[in-house]
Protein: Response regulator
Organism: Microbispora catharanthi
Amino acid sequence: MAGVSAIRVLVVDDDPLVRAGLTLMLRGADELVVVGGVADGADVGAAVDAHAPDVVLMDIRMPGLDGIDATRLLRRRPDPPHVIMLTTFDADEHVFGALRAGASGFLLKDTPPEGIVDAVLRVAAGEPILSPGVTRRLIAHLAPEAEDRRRADARRLLSRLSDREREVAAAVGRGRSNADIAAELHMSVGTVKSYISRILAKTSLDNRVQLALIAHDNPL
């Protein structure tokens, strides 16, 4: 039985079988409780109001309001839930749009149950769910459209940082873990975390994944 501190999860997918499968799987974890499920991005706002989830598992492709637009709307709310995007293919062309909209990462729908549970727990704790290797692979697939505008935006945001903060941001952009950054820059892991929190605040970014994309768009 989930306790009062259980992480509250909302499942959003237009396929009722996928919703049922995810719900059944998540309910097997003591740390999680599924508070609801909806079939379209247009219904997410009302469901969040009704159930106050900590994490939303959001399908990218839905026939009404897609997961990217639904995520963008959620991230504009005060104290929004974390969002994990669900996709069928790791090369989904919408993944970058999802991350830039404020998602904390993405999962393949065929991820093993323990992987999905781990991802929800990590995101609820404020950690991104993209490993350094996955981040690098995604960055390698970044579409070239609007490259000049992206680079200009990246330069504007990164200009707000101190030299040391820019070093940390550059390491995040290279897909380094906190431990790797700490070793490379001769600081503690706690200090690295503090730097990243400060960088996100200065740049008005939502999470580490967005910071990695910005740093990639303007190599430091």
Notes: The chain has a mean pLDDT of 82. Residues 189-203 form the longest helix (15 residues). The beta strands are 7-12, 32-38, 55-59, 82-87, 105-108.
